[in-house]
Design goal:
This protein is an alpha/beta fold. 17% of the residues lie in helices and 25% in strands. The longest helix is centred in the C-terminal third of the chain and has 16 residues, at 207-222. The protein is elongated.
Length: 260
Amino acid sequence: MIHPTAIIDPEARLGEGVEVGPYTVIGPKVTIGDRCSIGSHVQIASHVRMGKGNRVFSFASIGAPPQDLKFKGEDTWVEIGDGNTIREYVTVNRGTAQGAGVTRVANHTLLMAYCHLAHDCQVGSRVVMANAATLAGHVEVGDGAIIGGLVGVHQFVRIGEFAIVGALSGVPQDVPPYVTAVVARPQKGTSLYGLNLIGLKRNQFTEKAVSALKKAYRILFRSGALMGNAIARVEAEVELLPEVRRLLDFIRSSKRGVLR
């Protein structure tokens, strides 16, 4: 059902069973997949490709131009997969020509009220971002990660898969996969507080994998060794299961450095 007060551009393409609430505006170059529910007073501005079964709540803004002074109106995009929930007042901006050209949300992710995804962010599947969590430009968030309320993430930072970031954190460096992180500006000492054991259990990581990750964590983040030396120790002392390899590869590929 499309409410009679909704404004839908002739260029927009809506799939079967799409619902559009009162006073919602859907602009040009927008594709919305089957069975999506778009609430009242939503703006889907332009250049948005949305999959199936998404729910978008009142006053969300998707596909507005990026908040980047270099943006000159290029054809950049927002891409949203299937089964996502986008709550009230969420903002998801388009990508930039200087970045990936697309801001992307994968599948079955929950963006709670007032979250912001800036240009060129890449957010994985089954991610949860709590109220007012904010991603600056070019941030990457891995599958299954949880970002607490009122968290601010610096541009170009990566949040690894199945990591959890505590509320009110300001995140200036990469958060490794599988860990728990809490970061405050005046904080001294560690920003990591062990593995995200509850998350690993819920996602059916094996006891063998969790045991190997615990050993790797102690060496990488609690031994006091330089990171290069710590990585070498992990490779020599810990069984290199896929989860451990993923942790090491993430650290090696970091450009901003990782929290410790």
